[in-house]
Design brief:
The complex is a heterodimer of chains A (107) and B (151). Chain A has 107 residues and is an all-beta fold. Chain A is 0% helix and 52% strand. Chain A contains no helices and 8 strands. In chain A, a hairpin with a 4-residue loop joins β7 and β8. The chains are: A mainly beta (107), B alpha+beta (151). Chains A and B meet through β4, β5 and β6 of A and α1, β6 and β7 of B.
């Protein structure tokens, strides 16, 4: 349903830097508003939740509604103080989870 | 995939969101009144103040299927001055609520970008809930050439 997510995280930063993180996941984000050729409603099927953690601690999340475009893109910032690993998690309407990780060296 | 406590929590939260917004499919359209009701619930009664928040949208969106938007709130993101969350609303979409960003002090700056669907020319609204309970709001009109909620 969704393909492997892509994230862009700087490999290195200095303590106190505010870095920008960009994420993208392939997903059709079926809104539930459309109808098929026979006029039957196409059931809603979207990514409804995104969570970013750094070293296990939540730093950013988003609750997503059908108004977000297909292949949802999210960009946000994190102030980094120490090296660590980001985990990014997407959850869809069927409860399927997609996740990826990225490490950053701070110092 | 390994199921951690955190991911289990996230799934639970997602389920709640689904239950709230995943009701029967209808083709009724949101109105500015619907958006106002969502803002009222989100703000917890605090009167939204214009300013201190900037919403970046294109003036004209040729393709309503994917309209880049950005929101940025003036805040030091410290214990005393921070942003809890920001909701984005589209007053003229089939459903007004679009996305909710939940910030933490670790963000350093309260800013986020995404791409949204706009069914027609309409106002996009960003509402920020601050740590002290105050609420800020920005509203931009976006002219849409080809609507993005086709059906």
């Amino acid at each position: 349903m969704a393909s492997k997510p892509r994230v862009k995280v700087p490999k290195k930063a200095s303590p106190g830097d505010v870095i920008t993180i960009k994420t993208l996941i392939s997903h059709k984000m079926e809104s539930g508003q459309r109808k098929d050729k026979e006029g039957n409603p196409i059931p809603r099927m979207i990514i409804n939740r995104f969570v970013a953690t750094l070293n296990g601690k939540e730093v950013f999340s988003a609750d997503i509604d059908p108004g977000v475009s297909a292949n949802p893109y999210l960009e946000f910032s994190v102030k980094v103080e120490e090296s660590g690993t980001f985990n990014f998690l997407w959850v869809d309407d069927e409860g399927s989870e997609y996740s990826t990780e990225a490490s950053i060296t701070v110092g | 995939m390994k199921v951690t406590r955190r991911s289990a929590l996230a799934v639970g939260a997602g389920g709640v969101v689904f239950a709230m917004f995943g009701g029967p499919t209808t083709k009724s359209w949101a109105t500015p009144e619907d958006a106002a009701a969502i803002i009222k619930e989100f703000s917890g009664g605090a009167e939204p103040v214009m300013g201190g928040i900037s919403l970046t949208t294109p003036e004209i969106a040729e393709n309503g299927n994917t309209v880049p938007i950005g929101v940025s709130v003036d805040s030091a993101m410290t214990e005393d001055d921070n942003v809890k969350s920001v909701i984005i609303l589209a007053e003229g979409n089939p459903r007004a609520d679009v996305i909710r960003f939940n910030f933490s002090l670790a963000n350093g700056v309260a800013a986020a970008k995404t791409r949204i669907r706009l069914a027609k020319t309409q106002n996009v609204v960003a509402v920020a809930k601050m740590g002290d309970g105050s609420v800020r709001m920005a509203r931009n009109q976006v002219k849409v050439t080809i609507g993005g909620c086709g059906g």
